[in-house]
Task: structure prediction
Amino acid sequence: MKYIDSIYTNEIVILKSRFITSIYKVESIDEVNDILNKTRKKYYDASHNCYGYILGDRAEIQKCSDDGEPQKTAGFPILDVLKKNEVTNILCIITRYFGGTLLGAGGLVRAYSESCSDCLKKAKILIKKELNTLIVKLDYSSYNTLISSLKDIIILDTSYASDITIKLAVDNNRLDSTIQSINNITNGNALIEDSGLYETFIPID
Result:
């Protein structure tokens, strides 16, 4: 599954109807409901506040609402765009101000689909990745060389005492080579301990 990193907004006008789209990174139904309540208060005079959301790493929670638009012409198209883009932990709300011209069922489906899709194109898309973590204890003389030499690692924590202790995260494919590099740089004097897994989000190129 894919994720977004922030809030994104977009607006399109079709036959004088305004479609204001906002997509949010969300983690729970409570958060979804809070955003929906705030949106309804903000756009209290809108014709409709339609939405779709997906939650869970396996997209196990899904819901949508037409909010008064004809059945399956608003919420369902929104949810369909999110599903086709394989994004989760996301809420899309599209606020419509009616412009006086009826769009018909097909026109509404296209309008809500396009609004959601255009907003999603603005978003930075991330994937979740599990990295291995190591705790490395080494002397001060090796520290700078180690930090400058190791590539593609994430430093999670550093503590300073009689020695330096680093907690770092590294991709599983580079775990063995990273351990080997640490041993080479420290002449085998570093203490290296496996510290479990670390979840992070990385952008899709």
Q: What stands out?
A: The CA atoms of residues 179 and 192 lie 8 Å apart.
